[in-house]
TrEMBL record:
Source organism per UniProt: Azospirillum himalayense
Domain (Major facilitator superfamily (MFS) profile) ranges: 7-395
PANTHER family: BLL3282 PROTEIN
Identification of the protein by name: MFS transporter
Tree of life domain: Bacteria
C-alpha cells in the first residue's frame, strides 16, 4: 500500500470534521437566530470572526508542527473545533462568539499540518491529485451539514445537533493517535523556526516569491467567494426563495457534492492536461458567472434549475482548493511546505473575513442577498485576472554581484 494513502484518508477526515463544525452554523441559522436575538444574515459575521482568529493561527502553524508534529497538531485542531461546537450550543451570545474564536484556532493550522505531512510522503508527480483528494474533506463536511444537520435540527433541535457534531469530532481526534505515533517524529526532528519570528517568516516566504504573491491575490478572492457560497446559500434559499430548511440544505449539499467532483476532477486535469494556474484562472471566471446566476434567482425558478446553478457554483467555487495547495507545495522551499501554506492561508483568511462580513452588511443594510453575490462575483474576476496578467520582467542582474543567486520566477 502507498505510504501516503492512510495519512491522506486521515487528513481528509480531519478537514471534513473541522468543516462540519463550521458548515453546521449557517444550516442551523434560521432556527438559532431567534434564540440568539439576531437576524440570520448577521450570523455571517460568525464566519468573519472564525477566520480573523485563523489568520494568526495559520501563521503560527509552522511552529506548532515543528513542536508537536503534523498529526498531533491536527488532533488539537479537532478538539478545538469540538469545543467551538459545544460553546455555540449554549445559545449564549458571548459563548457563541468564543466558539467562533475557538473554531478559528482550529481552522488555522489544520491545512498547513496536512500539507507538511503529505508533501513529505507523496511523490511530486502525484501531488496535484493527492492534495485535491485531501481537499475533498471540506466537501464531505459540507454535504454532512447539508443532509444530516437539518434532519437532526428538526428532530432534536439545533443545540442538540451541535452537541452531536462536537462529540463525533472529538472521537476522531482519539482515532488518529496511532498515526501520530508513527509519523510525527520526522516533523519534530526538523529544525524549528525561531519562535518570535515564526509569523513574520511565513509571510516573508510568500512575499518573496512573485508566483506565490499572485497566487495569494487569487486565493484571497476565491476564498471569499467560497464562504459566501457556503455561508449564505441556505438562508438565501429559505428567506429569498421560500424553500423549506431540508430543501435548502439539499441545495448546499448539491453544491458541496459538485465541489467534491470538481476537486478530484480538476486534480486529474492538472496531472495530465493543463497547469494548475490556468485551471484556477478559468475557475475564477466560472464561479463569477455562477454567483451572478444565484443573484438573479427568484421564487419562480424551478427547483431543478436552481439546483443546477448550485452544482455549477460548487464545481467552481469549491473545486479549486486542491490545486491551490498543490501549487503552494510545488513553489515552497524544501521542508517548508507547511510554513508556506500557513502564510498563504493567512492571506486567504483575510478574504474569508472580508467577504462574509461585507455580504452580511449588504444584507443587513437592505441591499439583499443578490447584492452580496454580485460583489463576490466581481472579486472573483479580479482574482482570475491576477493569475493570468503577465508578471513584470525580472530586473537585469548587476554583473558586479553575478556570483549571488538570482530569484527565479516560477
Amino acid at each position: 500500500m502507498n505510504v501516503w494513502l492512510l495519512p491522506l484518508i486521515a487528513m481528509a477526515a480531519v478537514q471534513a470534521f473541522v468543516g462540519l463544525c463550521l458548515f453546521a452554523i449557517p444550516v442551523i441559522a434560521p432556527q438559532a437566530a431567534p434564540d440568539l436575538g439576531v437576524d440570520p444574515g448577521l450570523l455571517g459575521l460568525y464566519t468573519a470572526v472564525v477566520f480573523t482568529a485563523a489568520i494568526p493561527a495559520s501563521l503560527g502553524a509552522g511552529g506548532l508542527i515543528a513542536r508537536w508534529g503534523a498529526i498531533r497538531t491536527c488532533q488539537a485542531c479537532l478538539l478545538a473545533a469540538a469545543g467551538a461546537a459545544l460553546l455555540s450550543a449554549s445559545a449564549l451570545p458571548i459563548a457563541f462568539l468564543l466558539g467562533a474564536l475557538a473554531l478559528g484556532f482550529a481552522f488555522g493550522p489544520e491545512t498547513p499540518a496536512s500539507t507538511q505531512l503529505l508533501s513529505r510522503l507523496t511523490p511530486p508527480e502525484k501531488r496535484p491529485l493527492v492534495f485535491s483528494l485531501r481537499q475533498t474533506g471540506n466537501q464531505f463536511g459540507g454535504m454532512a451539514a447539508g443532509f444530516a444537520v437539518p434532519l437532526l435540527v428538526l428532530s432534536l433541535g439545533w443545540q442538540a445537533s451541535l452537541m452531536i457534531v462536537a462529540g463525533a469530532t472529538a472521537v476522531l481526534a482519539l482515532v488518529l493517535e496511532p498515526l501520530a505515533r508513527r509519523h510525527d517524529g520526522d516533523d519534530r526532528a526538523a529544525p524549528r523556526p525561531a519562535g518570535r519570528g515564526t509569523l513574520k517568516r511565513a509571510l516573508d516566504l510568500v512575499a518573496g516569491e512573485p508566483a506565490l504573491r499572485r497566487l495569494a491575490m487569487a486565493v484571497c478572492a476565491f476564498s471569499a467567494m467560497q464562504l459566501c457560497l457556503n455561508g449564505f446559500l441556505v438562508s438565501f434559499a429559505v428567506t429569498g426563495l421560500g424553500w423549506s430548511l431540508p430543501l435548502a440544505g439539499t441545495a448546499l449539499a448539491v453544491a458541496q457534492g459538485a465541489g467534491l467532483v470538481g476537486r478530484v476532477g480538476w486534480g486529474l486535469v492538472a496531472t495530465r492536461w493543463a497547469t494548475p494556474r490556468v485551471i484556477l484562472a478559468g475557475l475564477g471566471v466560472a464561479m463569477s458567472v455562477a454567483a451572478a446566476l444565484v443573484a438573479i434567482a427568484n421564487p419562480g425558478w424551478p427547483v431543478p434549475a436552481f439546483l443546477a446553478v448550485c452544482a455549477a457554483f460548487g464545481l467552481s467555487a469549491s473545486g479549486w482548493n486542491g490545486l491551490f495547495v498543490a501549487e503552494v507545495a510545488r513553489l515552497a522551499p524544501s521542508g517548508r511546505a507547511g510554513e508556506a501554506t500557513g502564510g498563504m492561508l493567512a492571506i486567504a483568511y483575510a478574504g474569508l473575513v472580508a467577504g462574509p462580513a461585507l455580504f452580511s452588511l449588504l444584507v443587513a443594510g437592505g441591499f439583499g442577498y443578490s447584492a452580496g453575490y454580485l460583489a463576490a462575483a466581481a472579486a472573483a474576476l479580479v482574482g482570475a485576472a491576477a493569475l493570468v496578467v503577465p508578471l513584470p520582467p525580472a530586473p537585469t542582474p548587476d554583473l558586479s554581484t553575478a556570483a549571488e543567486d538570482t530569484p527565479c520566477v516560477r
